[in-house]
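Researcher: Go.
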Amino acid sequence: MSNAQVRELALGLPPKDRATLARELIESLDPDEPDPGVEDSWIEEIESRAEALDRGEAKSYDGKCRWNKFDARFVKDANRELAPP
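Model: Structure:
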């Protein structure tokens, strides 16, 4: 069966079944085990960042505050792009 035929059959499913199928297909792309060394690399990165904070070489910001500033900039930029010339 071709991809086009499978797609046509899948699109004919009820929405709930399509959602289940989509989730199962996406999950099938994710490996059960992470790539070797990924967890160790993240631990090293976290430790490095924590040490930089302790030495005063990095700043930390409240997550909500940073997102609010990002949102404000994003909205400002979006409004500027949408403004008539």
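Model: Helices lie at 3-11, 15-29, 38-54, 63-82.
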